[in-house]
């Protein structure tokens, strides 16, 4: 049960001063809380023996006011310090999680769904923070505070009465242990179900246009209702165990009260204790209610925190399958790129996606890559970005194997515009500044001209300050592609990769973008993957891929003369273009 504290020892060791202060202040506040019941018993005895004076009463009331003020100040200090530590822990782990996500490769995101990762980053972190705050409070109150109350009852009133009243405690320990094991198992299932529900909601919101287009609203509602019901049932299973804690504690506390009153009254009749001491004893018994409840709350919180921490550790313990070398080699510029007999298959597939691929690219060249869907164009770019491990052969930048380069440095060389455009829920300006954080509006306008987006921007309500919505939902497909192109252009990378990134723009716009690109990218290397041959006609080298192999290689003119797949596609597209014009 206390394993969760051991798992968090790295945090407690770092903030040991904060927690030591909080615990000491909490104990001091608890000590002050033990004094008033003695005052009550003393006053009752003074009244019974008719010895109470005004002076004594004023002194007691004054002392009580001072105690209340001291208790208030100390309670504020321990509360702020203790629960402040819990907030720090939540922030710390959330930052670690976010940093960890950014290091992960596609393999990781293929294993864990986005909704589940969100659940672990929110609900599970709340449960862990609760352990570091309320969990520590219940630990102290259910152990130290309880022992302090018992000691005061035993030493200052009667050990016989105290031990008799505490008979139900062993029963409580056994019952709470069983409840705790059940909560751990059920809470883990509930959190997993919540993660699945999160993922379903995320996909439904992202795909709302498709859902509407295919008139799948009712079916989606039914799926959501089923998952909601599953989450409800699993959380109700947790709630049932939770609900057993309070009545169980009340029964046990009631038994303690019954024993205390019955046996205590007998001791008063036999003049072993006074009436005031019996009243004080019952006040202390009342004070024991919270520590007894705290035992149940402690077990509940620790089991939830332990389950959540295990789920978070499952993520943090997952090591990225692509890492920077411990001693990376330095490279200032990329004079040449060599692909030497590359072969590759994805970790989750047995199909070879690249096979014996070799190519030499000199600085300043434009490389056109064409082929059927699934030929391996995107796979080649992912290997250049080192998104996957397990590649046979080598890719070298300037005679340095990319495996020997720091990952961040490698990706700084490259500007990548993928097939699926990812725009953030920010303004157009902020999206383009992802390529260069300190880019001025003048620079942004310049790259937007290169991406042929200036005319479109004039139609937008707030220009550069227009919010694009989640994933760029307020922009058309062609507009999103051109904003993504501008974001890559402003980076001015040594190597620019355009992965079919102009498929949603018309041929005229594409030709203007390519014309700007040729002027802008002189002496810099560019890779262009496309299905339209017009996008690669100007390339210094054009390769045709089929099943991850180079089946044709040359310039536009030489490939047309070869009479292979490239020529067929080029002539077909030319014919379609002419028919479209006519």
How would you describe what is shown here?
With 582 residues, the chain is an alpha/beta fold. It has two domains: 3-316, ABC transporter transmembrane region fold; 331-413 and 497-502 and 540-582, Rossmann fold (3-Layer(aba) Sandwich). Helices cover 64% and strands 10% of the residues. It contains 21 helices and ten strands. It has helices spanning 3-7, 9-14, 16-33, 36-48, 54-103, 106-111, 114-156, 159-165, 169-206, 208-213, 217-269, 275-316, 377-384, 407-412, 428-432, 441-450, 454-458, 477-489, 507-520, 556-562, 565-581; strands at residues 336-345, 352-362, 366-371, 392-397, 400-401, 414-417, 495-499, 525-529, 541-546, 549-554. The chain has a six-stranded mixed β-sheet with strand order 6-7-8-3-9-10, with helices on both faces. The termini are far apart. The mean pLDDT is 87. Residues 20-304 form the ABC transmembrane type-1 domain. This is ABC transporter transmembrane domain-containing protein. InterPro entries: AAA+_ATPase (IPR003593), ABC1_TM_dom (IPR011527), ABC1_TM_sf (IPR036640), ABC_transporter-like_ATP-bd (IPR003439), ABC_transporter-like_CS (IPR017871), P-loop_NTPase (IPR027417), Type_1_exporter (IPR039421).
List keywords for this structure.
alpha/beta, elongated, Rossmann fold, 582 residues, six-stranded mixed β-sheet, four-stranded antiparallel β-sheet, single chain, 10 strands, ABC transporter transmembrane region fold, nucleotide-binding
CATH superfamily of the largest domain: ABC transporter type 1, transmembrane domain
Percent helix, as a range, is: 55-70%
Count of folded domains: 2
CATH topology of the largest domain: ABC transporter transmembrane region fold
- Categorize the overall geometry: elongated
Examine the secondary-structure arrangement and name the CATH architecture of the largest domain: Up-down Bundle
Oligomerization = single chain
What is the terminal separation in angstroms? 78 Å
Q: Tally the helices.
A: 21
What is the CATH top level name of the largest domain?
Mainly Alpha
How much is the radius of gyration in Å? 35 Å
Structure class: alpha/beta
Low-confidence stretches: none
Order of strands in the sheet with most strands? 6-7-8-3-9-10
**In percent, how much strand structure appears in the residues?**
5-15%
Largest sheet: 6 strands, mixed
Give a count of the beta strands, DSSP E runs of length 2 or more.
Answer: 10
Average pLDDT confidence is: 87
Keywords: ATP-binding, Membrane, Nucleotide-binding, Transmembrane, Transmembrane helix
Transmembrane segments: 20-44, 56-89, 127-151, 157-176, 251-269, 281-302
Domain ABC transmembrane type-1: 20-304
Domain ABC transporter: 337-572
């Amino acid at each position: 049960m206390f394993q969760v504290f051991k798992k968090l020892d790295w945090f407690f060791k770092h903030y040991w001063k904060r927690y030591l202060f909080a615990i000491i202040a909490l104990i001091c506040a608890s000590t002050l809380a033990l004094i008033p019941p003695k005052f009550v018993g003393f006053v009752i005895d003074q009244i019974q023996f008719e010895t109470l004076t005004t002076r004594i009463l004023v002194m007691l009331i004054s002392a009580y006011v001072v105690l209340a003020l001291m208790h208030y100040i100390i309670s504020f200090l321990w509360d702020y310090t203790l629960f402040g530590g819990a907030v720090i822990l939540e922030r710390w782990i959330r930052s670690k999680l976010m940093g960890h996500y950014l290091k992960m490769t596609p393999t990781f995101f293929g294993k864990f769904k986005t909704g589940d990762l969100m659940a672990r980053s929110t609900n599970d972190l709340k449960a862990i923070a609760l352990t570091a705050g309320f969990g520590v409070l219940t630990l102290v109150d259910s152990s130290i505070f309880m022992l302090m109350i018992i000691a005061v009852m035993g030493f200052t009133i009667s050990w016989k009465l105290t031990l008799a009243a505490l008979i139900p405690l062993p029963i409580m320990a056994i019952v709470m242990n069983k409840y705790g094991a059940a909560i751990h198992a059920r809470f883990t299932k509930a959190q997993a179900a919540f993660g699945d529900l999160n993922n379903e909601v995320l996909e439904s919101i992202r795909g709302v246009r498709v859902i509407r287009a295919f008139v799948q609203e009712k079916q989606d509602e039914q799926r959501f209702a089923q998952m909601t019901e599953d989450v409800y049932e699993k959380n109700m299973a947790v709630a049932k165990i939770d609900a057993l804690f309070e009545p169980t504690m009340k029964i046990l506390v009631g038994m303690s009260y019954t024993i205390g009153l019955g046996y205590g009254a007998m001791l008063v009749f036999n003049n072993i204790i006074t009436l005031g001491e019996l009243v004080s004893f019952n006040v202390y018994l009342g004070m024991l209610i919270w520590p007894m409840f705290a035992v149940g709350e402690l077990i509940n919180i620790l089991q939830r925190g332990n389950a959540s921490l295990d789920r978070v550790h499952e993520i943090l313990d997952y090591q990225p399958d692509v890492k920077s070398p411990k001693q990376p080699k330095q490279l200032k510029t990329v004079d040449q790129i060599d692909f030497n007999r590359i072969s590759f298959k994805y970790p989750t597939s047995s199909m070879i996606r690249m096979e014996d691929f070799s190519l030499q690219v000199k600085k300043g060249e434009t490389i056109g890559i064409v082929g059927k869907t699934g030929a391996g164009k995107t796979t080649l770019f992912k290997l250049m970005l080192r998104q996957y491990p397990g590649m046979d052969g080598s890719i070298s930048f300037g005679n340095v194997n990319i495996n020997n380069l720091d990952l961040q440095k490698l990706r700084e060389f490259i500007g990548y515009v993928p097939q699926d455009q990812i725009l953030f829920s920010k303004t157009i300006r902020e999206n383009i500044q992802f390529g260069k954080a300190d880019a001025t509006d003048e620079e942004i306008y310049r790259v937007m001209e290169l991406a042929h987006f200036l005319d479109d921007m004039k139609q937008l309500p707030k220009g550069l300050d227009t919010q694009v919505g989640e994933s760029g939902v307020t922009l058309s497909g062609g507009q999103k592609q051109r904003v993504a192109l501008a974001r890559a252009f402003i980076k001015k990378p040594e190597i620019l990769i355009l992965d079919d990134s102009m498929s949603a723009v018309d041929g005229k716009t594409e030709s203007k973008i390519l014309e700007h690109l040729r002027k802008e990218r002189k002496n810099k290397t560019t890779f262009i993957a496309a299905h339209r041959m017009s996008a690669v006609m100007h390339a210094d080298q054009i390769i045709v891929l089929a099943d991850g192999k180079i089946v044709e290689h040359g310039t536009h003119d030489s490939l047309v003369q070869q009479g292979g797949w490239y020529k067929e596609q080029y002539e077909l597209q030319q014919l379609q273009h002419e028919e479209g014009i006519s």
